[in-house]
Amino acid sequence: MTSPLHAVVRGSGTPILFLHGFTVDHRILLPFEQDFAPDAPWERLYVDLPGFGESPAVARPSSADATLAALTAFVNERIGSRPFAVVGSSFGGLMARGLVAGFGDQAIGLGMLCPVVGPLASRVLPAKTVLQSDPLLLAGLAPEDARDYAAMAVLQSEENWRLFRDFALPGIRCHDREAAAELAERFDLSFVPEERGGPFVGPSLMVTGRQDHAVGFADQLSLIPSYPRLTQLTLDACGHNAHFDQPELVHAAFREWLARMAGSRRAAGSASVRRPS
Asked: Strands 84-89 and 42-47: what pairing?
């Protein structure tokens, strides 16, 4: 059976799966392309989750468990038995943790950008904060664009707006509203990924924003013991779109994670794998 999930593929080599968050699509993670040299030994698969971008909602009602099942099928079909890494942003971070738990040693690295941890009702969230406002910028935007941008931006500026406009807004405008509403009611996995299979020993990265009022930064600290090779950064002047608010720091951390994975691959040779059904 062919996976219905849409993906934009760049480069060749060891696969890295990029998983976006809620109500956006794969484009929000495309800025990470700047961190790969033309001859980089990584195949990048930027996936549209079910009901977002060009991927249809594959199970109704939409749920976290159904999304993870669709991603598992995608990996089995498109990646097969090859070792792979996964990067997840927000809800995609929850899915990335689920894939790492399910694929075991086949997963060689995990990157998390402001990942969802725990149900909304119990999250520890900072108050919404705007550290740098730009009323003139907002006044010059279409009202709907200004509303969506202001809802997330901690540092309002022309450059920050351009990143949001080019990489976040397209997905916000085109996702399946009905499927998203269903997913919002079934946003949690039926299991805790870290309770399956023991600690994940591959190179890991987690970036959170001190002013992230969507998923917070405190709950994510509970993940640290489960990832013994985790670099964890909590960035000030940074909200839920960390790579928009603090691009230099986030991209530097991402490149360092890539280097750690490359070093681990050279040291360990071919990884043993197991594939979930």
From this structure: unpaired
Q: Coil, strand, or helix at residue 63?
A: coil
pLDDT above 80: residue 274: no
Residue 271 pLDDT greater than 50, yes or no: no
| pTM of the predicted model as reported, rounded to 2 decimal places | 0.94
Query: What's the number of CA atoms in the CB half-sphere (13 Å) around residue 178?
Result: 6
Q: Which H or E element spans position 71? A: helix 64-78
- d(CA 219, CA 207) in angstroms, rounded, equals 13
Category of 64 on φ-ψ map: left (φ > 0), alpha (ψ -120 to 50) or beta: alpha
Contact residues for 58 (Cβ-Cβ < 8 A; gap 6+): 4, 5, 50, 66, 70
C-alpha dist (Å) from residue 259 to 15, 226, 233, 264:
15, 21, 17, 9
3-state secondary structure of 9: strand
What is the Cα–Cα distance from 254 to 38, expressed in whole angstroms?
Answer: 17
198: which residues sit within 8 A by CB, 6+ positions away?
A: none
Cα Rg, the chain, nearest whole Å: 18
Please report the pLDDT score of residue 270 as a whole number: 42
With helix as H, strand as E and coil as C, how does 132-190 read?
ECCHHHHHCCCHHHHHHHHCCCCECCHHHHHHHHHHHHHHHHHCCHHHHHHHHHCCCCC
Q: How far apart are CA 91 and CA 118, in angstroms?
A: 11
| Helix, strand or coil, per DSSP, at residue 206 | strand
| Residue pLDDT, tens place only, 188-222 | 999 999 998 789 999 999 999 999 999 999 999 99
Distance CA 147, CA 186 (A): 26
